[in-house]
Structures are given as structure tokens and as C-alpha cells.
């Protein structure tokens, strides 16, 4: 018995007629997976506590891990929070729509506790993907959306990853092809002074500092344990994990046997994925590489470590988590 509706759209120019059905499902409290520029999200009406509970159930996500609320305009974002500081305005002007999530005090009249795991803050983001933007506009409500994967598994960057991971636990899946950025948004809290990056993403600390004209708090090098609710529970150590054991190494072994490998340069083969030495392209392909090698049942995935420079920060973060026991 299948309940999922599959909708395929042109990622750059989706038609309203195609998205209208999904928007209606969202208004009806259903779960709709859709592409954003980072990864696929599993969306629900953020003002509907029962729909939001459905997200946690479908993902097997601990109720202590809050969700990001997605909006189609700055105006809508301002309605979700209690106060919109000049820093938020400057960052939104510089990076929205785009892969930056801002944590601010929440407006409790709009956002139910289930979304924020009972906390006093809310994470908001305005995605750049045309499908996400138009879907949110047509739905006419803020949409909370975690990555559309089972909890702790690798995030989806293609519709088939969502299909394989969530199957019929969802009501609709919008296929808009492969996502562009490939790793999740940068999460920045503005409720602390100075602001702090809770989750590194492809919008880096330096770019944020330049817009704010001030330093950020040092990001924690050590990841935070799952048991703690604050400050960003998604920072749990084991996350983004394939079934295979992931080994981070300077150099992958010559004889791979049944194992797979992700390398920066060299010759690709069925079990060797070359992601290239440019961080953008590497990020774009990383999760698809993990999904692919996992689907081949590689017992171990060897990953050649990328350079230790700021542009690779988000990638190192995700690789460390994928490798965590
Ligand atoms: O790129 C993305 O952000 C994707 C796409 C779908 O938009 N979404 C995503 O959601 O990665 P999720 O649920 O997989 O990760 C959300 C992260 C988690 O680390 C969570 O703990 C953190 O944001 N977060 C959410 N609300 C928060 C809050 N109020 N305070 C601190 N951290 C929060
Ligand atoms: Mg996630």
C-alpha cells in the first residue's frame, strides 16, 4: 500500500500547477519532501503541531532536536521571531535567499513548541531553490523542514535518496533533480553575544564576519553529545552516517577489495568516487557518493582527507560525523 505521491518538476522553472497539489497537502497537515539548494527537506506546516509531530515520527528523530522553519520572504521570517535585530537584517540582505539559518528568540504565538523542542528560540531560513521558494509561497504558511532522511543517516541530495530512506512514510515527494550546494545550511545563533556558528556550512565564518563587521565566538572544535538539548542538538557526534564504516585517511589503500573510496583526484571506477579538489564541487557530490557506495554494500568507505583550510570546514565537519562510531 503506497500513500506517496511523486511529482517531477523542472528545478529552475517549476509550474504552479505541479506545485499546487503539494502546497495543498502541506496546508492539510501532510508531509512533503522537496528540494532545497542544500539538501532535500521533509516539509510540514510549521504552525500545525500535529503535522510537525509527523515529521519526528517519519524520521525517527528525537523530540529534543528542533527544526528549521523555512520562509519565502524576510517579512514572513520577521513574523516568526520576537525581535529582528540589525544583524539579522544585514545577514538576510547579504545571504538570503541562501544556505544560512539564523537562530533568534521565537514568537510563541506562531511557532508551536514541537518545532523548537520546547526551547525559546527558533531557527529560520529562506531557501534559494526555486521549487522550495514557490512551494512555500503557494502553501502560504511557514514550512518546517529537516533533511529528508531517517535520523542519523546521510542527508539526501537527490529524490531517489529520499525514496530509498523514507519510502512511504511521507505523503509526497517533489523530484527537482540533484541539489546544488550538497551540505546543509550554516546555522548561526544571534541570541548569543557574540554570534556563534552552531553548524558550519558553505557560507563560512569569514563571509559572515565581514557582513557583521565583528568577530564571531569560536566554534566548538569538539562536537556536542546528543544527550544535551542545547545549544544545537543536531550537533550530535554520530550523524550523516552511512551503514558502511567510514575511515578518514591521508591516503586510501591500494587494494580496496570490497571497500569503496572517495578521493580528491585520480581515476574513478565503480567503487572509487572522485570528488575533486574544489570545495564546492566536493560538497555537491559528497552525500551522493556516500549513498552510492553504501548501496553497493561496501563494508568500508575510505575517504582521503581534504585540505585543512576554512573553505573545507563544513566538509570536514560532515566527514568527521560520518566517521563517528
Ligand atoms: O540546509 C538545511 O538546513 C536543511 C534544508 C532542508 O533546509 N535542513 C536541515 O535541517 O539540515 P535539520 O533538521 O537536518 O538540521 C537542523 C539543524 C540541527 O542541527 C538543529 O539542532 C539545528 O538546526 N536547530 C534547529 N533549531 C534550532 C534552534 N532553535 N537552536 C539551535 N539549533 C537549532
Ligand atoms: Mg539532518
Strand content is 15-25%
The tally of beta strands, per DSSP, is: 14
Structural class from helices and strands?
alpha/beta
Question: Helix and strand string, N-terminal first?
Answer: EHEEHEHHEHEHEHEEEHEEEHEH
Low-confidence stretches: 222-231
Average predicted local confidence, pLDDT: 93
- Secondary structure: helix percent: 25-40%
Distance between the termini: 35 Å
Query: What is the count of DSSP helices, taking H or I runs of 4+ residues?
Result: 10
Rg over C-alpha atoms, rounded to the nearest angstrom = 19 Å
Tell me the major beta sheet. Answer: 10 strands, mixed
* Strand order within the widest beta sheet: 1-8-2-3-7-4-6-5-9-10
List all distinct small molecules, including ions and cofactors, that are bound in this structure: threonylcarbamoyladenylate, magnesium ion
Specify the overall morphology: globular
In words, what does this structure look like?
The protein contains ten helices and 14 strands. It has helices spanning 16-27, 49-59, 74-80, 86-95, 113-116, 130-139, 159-166, 205-212, 279-295, 313-323; strands at residues 5-8, 32-35, 40-45, 68-70, 100-105, 121-125, 143-144, 172-175, 186-189, 196-199, 245-249, 260-263, 272-274, 300-304. The protein is globular. Mean pLDDT is 93; it is low at 222-231. The structure holds threonylcarbamoyladenylate (TXA) and magnesium ion (MG). Residues 36, 38-39, 41, 65-68, 99, 101, 103, 116, 119, 121-123, 125, 127, 145-147, 184-185, 187, 198-199, 231-235 line the site of threonylcarbamoyladenylate (TXA).
Amino acid at each position: 500500500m503506497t500513500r506517496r505521491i511523486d511529482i517531477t518538476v523542472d528545478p529552475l522553472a517549476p509550474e504552479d500547477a505541479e506545485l499546487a497539489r503539494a502546497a495543498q497537502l502541506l496546508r492539510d497537515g501532510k508531509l512533503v519532501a522537496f528540494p532545497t539548494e542544500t539538501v532535500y527537506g521533509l516539509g510540514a506546516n510549521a504552525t500545525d503541531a500535529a503535522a510537525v509531530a509527523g515529521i519526528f515520527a517519519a524520521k525517527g528523530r528525537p523530540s529534543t532536536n528542533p527544526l528549521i522553519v523555512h520562509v519565502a520572504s524576510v517579512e514572513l521570517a520577521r513574523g516568526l521571531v520576537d525581535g529582528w535585530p540589525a544583524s539579522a537584517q544585514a545577514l538576510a540582505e547579504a545571504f538570503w535567499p541562501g544556505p544560512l539559518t539564523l537562530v533568534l528568540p521565537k514568537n510563541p504565538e506562531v511557532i508551536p513548541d514541537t518545532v523548537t523542542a520546547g526551547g525559546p528560540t527558533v531557527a529560520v531560513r529562506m531557501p534559494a531553490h526555486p521549487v522550495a521558494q514557490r512551494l512555500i509561497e503557494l502553501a502560504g504558511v511557514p514550512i518546517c523542514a529537516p533533511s529528508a532522511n531517517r535520523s542519523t543517516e546521510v542527508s539526501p541530495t537527490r529524490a531517489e535518496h529520499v525514496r530509498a530512506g523514507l519510502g512511504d512514510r511521507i505523503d509526497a515527494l517533489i523530484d527537482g533533480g540533484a541539489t546544488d550546494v550538497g551540505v546543509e545550511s550554516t546555522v548561526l545563533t544571534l541570541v548569543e553575544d557574540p554570534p556563534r556558528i552552531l553548524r558550519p556550512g558553505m557560507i563560512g565564518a569569514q563571509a559572515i564576519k565581514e557582513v557583521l563587521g565583528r568577530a564571531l565566538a569560536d566554534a566548538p572544535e569538539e562536537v556536542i553529545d546528543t544527550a544535551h538539548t542545547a545549544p544545537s542538538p543536531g550537533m550530535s557526534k554520530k550523524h550523516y552516517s552511512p551503514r558502511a564504516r567510514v575511515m578518514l585517511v591521508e591516503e586510501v589503500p591500494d587494494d580496496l577489495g570490497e571497500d569503496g573510496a572517495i578521493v580528491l583526484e585520480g581515476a574513478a571506477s565503480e567503487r572509487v568516487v572522485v570528488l575533486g579538489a574544489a570545495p564546492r564541487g566536493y560538497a555537491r557530490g559528497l552525500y551522493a557518493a556516500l549513498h552510492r557506495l553504501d548501496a553497493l554494500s561496501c563494508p568500508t568507505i575510505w575517504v582521503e582527507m581534504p585540505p585543512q583550510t576554512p573553505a573545507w570546514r563544513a566538509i570536514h565537519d560532515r566527514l568527521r560525523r560520518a566517521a563517528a562510531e
